[in-house]
Hints:
It is a single chain. By secondary structure, the chain is an alpha+beta fold. It has 2 domains: about 5-140, Jelly Rolls (Sandwich), CATH 2.60.120; about 145-225, Winged helix-like DNA-binding domain superfamily/Winged helix DNA-binding domain (Arc Repressor Mutant, subunit A). It contains 8 helices and 12 strands. Helix 3 (about 105-115) crosses helix 4 and helix 5 packs across helix 6 (about 175-185). The longest helix is centred in the middle third of the chain and has 23 residues, at about 120-140. The radius of gyration is 18 Å and the shape is globular. The relative contact order is 0.13. InterPro entries: cNMP-bd_dom (IPR000595), cNMP-bd_dom_sf (IPR018490), Env_Response_Regulators (IPR050397), RmlC-like_jellyroll (IPR014710), WH-like_DNA-bd_sf (IPR036388), WH_DNA-bd_sf (IPR036390). One of its GO terms (cellular component) is cytosol. Pfam families: cNMP_binding (PF00027). GO terms for molecular function: DNA-binding transcription factor activity. This is Crp/Fnr family transcriptional regulator.
Amino acid sequence: MQTAAFNELFPLFNAASPETVDWLLSIAVEHDYPADRAVLMEDAWGNAVYFIESGWVKVRRHGGEEVNTLAILGRGDFFGEMAILDESPRSTDVVALSSVHLLSISAQRFIQTLFRDSQLHHRMLQLMVRRLRQTNYRFQLRHQPPAIKLVNTLVALGESYGSPSEYGTEIYNIPFKDLADVSDITVEEATKIMEKLSSKGWIRIAPGRQAIYLAHLKQLNHIAGRG
């Protein structure tokens, strides 16, 4: 991948020097995983930082026999950055929702790069604060009706990873169980809400294309309380 394309795809590197980006691209390792394949196991956290060039993944937490999805990440995002600074045991893994293409950079080299490029270091802190704010916002929604929580999830995924199409903003056809987990509602609630949104024409689910289209973002934003 060329430096300009890398910078455009990954906002983290917008402020990094061209020399930093060239160096990272020269040491990055490429990975391809099919859907449903474990990308990062519980005991592998802290070994590298992973950048999603294409596809969708989910971060899961294990608690006894229960497995819950904590986050859904798409093209242009990254994961593993906090674990390189925190050596505590992990009870989470990352699984490919779709086929996914990743770039990884070893923890040691990534930390060295952060120390060498203060702009990259500052940008990393900004994005980590942004994630914290997003987590706080989800916590503030905990007492809201299920529809508001789920539509907030859909809108956020569209804003972060969606791509324009003739049918509206396109996101991956994420399983209802994962949408329910991330939205902190039940699968039954998620199923009913998605069916209602689809019947009203506000979203369009296309299983054959593995896509959900957010057909009426204005209406969805209104439901979510975002505008």
